[in-house]
Amino acid sequence: MNELQATSLRAHEDFISVGVTKLCQAYISSSCKFDVVSNNISETFNGYILKARSKPIINMLEDIRRMLMARMQSKRELMLKSNDTICPTIRKKLEKNKKERKDCHVTPAGNMIFEVQSFDKSNVVNLVNRICSCRCWDINGIPCKHAISCILWLKEELEHYVHDYYKKDTYLKT
Ligand SMILES: [Zn+2]
């Protein structure tokens, strides 16, 4: 905070006025399993209904209903064809984290708890509680590079440790 204040007094004041609990990873809730908080979804939806929103209300709602029905059906078909147990975007994120684990060194501490060293940093991973001290796994439900290092050290399947929200079965139920 002192460094921020020295760099920009205005930025420091804005940061304080918004509140530390809304801006620091340490305070982000882990219940949603989502690490990006923005209004992108409303902007995307606004663009999605661009043609429909100029119509009278009933016609607009009917257009939106039809568009969403077609979208849900095409997504359902894609997921039914998939042989993976997790959703495609989550698979990409998991593979990205897997590639980034190369600098991680695992030390087991027993009871499925590990210390993972990466360059000059050290994190604690608890595979039973599915948490890592970097907080990425807790917040987004996808094992971080530290957790992946431990899971692969145990020769276990990564998919087992991805949150159920991202499983194919959950998607199809939704
Ligand atoms: Zn981590």
TrEMBL record:
The keyword Thylakoid does not apply. It comes from the Eukaryota. Pfam families: SWIM. InterPro entries: Znf_PMZ, Znf_SWIM. GO terms for molecular function: zinc ion binding. Residues 114-155 form the SWIM-type domain. Keywords: Metal-binding, Zinc, Zinc-finger. The keyword Signal does not apply. PANTHER family: POLYPROTEIN, PUTATIVE-RELATED, SWIM-TYPE DOMAIN-CONTAINING PROTEIN. This is SWIM-type domain-containing protein. It comes from Canna indica (Indian-shot).
